[in-house]
Amino acid sequence: MNNPTFPPDSKYEVASIMGGLYGDGFIACKGAFSREWVYELGADIAMLFEEALATPGGALARGPSRYYVEIHPERLSGFADIISHPWVVAVCRAVLGPDYKVVEAGFDVPGPGAMKQPWHRDFPSPEATLVGRRLNSLAFNITTVDVTEEMGPFEIAPGTQWDDLTGGDLMFPGPEWSERYEARAQKKLAQMGDISARSALTIHRGTANRSQRSRPVFVLGVDAPDGTNADKHDLQVTRGYYESLPQEVRRHLAARVVDRLDPIVQGHAIEGLKMGQMG
Ligand SMILES: O=C(O)CCC(=O)C(=O)O
Ligand SMILES: [Fe+2]
Residue 202: how many CB atoms within 10 A of its CB? Predict the structure, then answer.
């Protein structure tokens, strides 16, 4: 059928998507959204951030002047645009299969004065990746600002999603690994409208924000059917919102359908990120 939202789009080749995520562990779609659309996303996030800061336990500290907030998807006016974007759909299908599920929606806010994070992955590698050599989850990011060097860009060490950290800390590689990551480090100067997709296992860090502006970035977590990240999250949508979504979009939401949204218990704390490093 000719559903315009879900074309089998040959612009997005499975082989290049797989090559990018199994190779570097990071790919991007430049200019996926208009700047106007991103301004709206930024405004929604600013509003939700204020709300979260005013709620006890509403925002998780990830180092000085750096927060993570998990949200109710429908509070973003553009949420359906994100999860039905043809590039996002193509990437999820290619890497996670036809029954992928959206398990997490949130945002990171590294504010002025945020410090350099230690190199890390966002959770320990699952058996599927370590032994099965397969990725069963992805993280998508959408910046709400044009990132400059001074804002402390996101930095990634390509290809390191396959590193086996067994024997040490499973999320924070010890000093014996730093040479490897420093040698590979790439700064991502994302611009408004860009979407990126990465394995959250690819070693990465936020760097020091020396500017006067914060750098809020939207985060979408997606699992393959055997992914277990849903366990850490509790996505909720109201019945009205759920029913407003096309069946094909709804099918991929690993969310509880509720009459009223419950406050979110911010669960995805990363203990090792509470402190920061100078630099
Ligand atoms: O600064 C960023 O964009 C990412 C931060 C990050 O990796 C984290 O808090 O887990
Ligand atoms: Fe991270």
Answer: 22
The CA distance from 66 to 111, in Å, is: 6
Q: Which residue has the tokens 């996101």?
A: 154
Between the CA of 173 and the centroid of ligand 1 the distance, in Å, is: 16
Look at the chain and report how many structural domains it folds into: 1
- Return the HEC string of 121-142: CCCCCCHHHHCCCCCCEEEEEE
Is 193 part of a structural domain of the chain? yes
Ligand 1 atom nearest to 217, measured from its CA: 3
Q: Quick check: 200 and 139 in contact, CB under 8 A?
A: yes
Supply 126's token pair: 């699952």
Domain hosting residue 137, numbered range: 14-102+123-234
Q: What residue's CA is closest to ligand 1, atom 2?
A: 206
The tens digit of pLDDT for each residue in 2-17 reads: 444 555 556 899 999 9
CATH number at residue 81: 2.60.120.620
Pair of tokens at residue 203: 């070693």
Nearest CA among 277, 66, 114 for reference residue 210: 114
Q: Would you list the DSSP string of 171-199?
A: SS--GGGHHHHHHH-EEE---TT-EEEE-
| Tens digits of residue pLDDT in 146-202 | 999 999 999 999 999 999 999 999 999 999 999 999 999 999 999 999 999 999 999
Establish if 272 belongs to a structural domain. Answer: no
240 lies in some domain = no
Nearest atom (ligand 1) to Cα of 152? 1
Q: Cα–chain-centroid distance for residue 73?
A: 13
Q: What residues are in contact with ligand 1 under a 6 Å CB criterion?
A: 62, 68, 108, 110, 117, 122, 154, 204, 206, 217, 270, 273
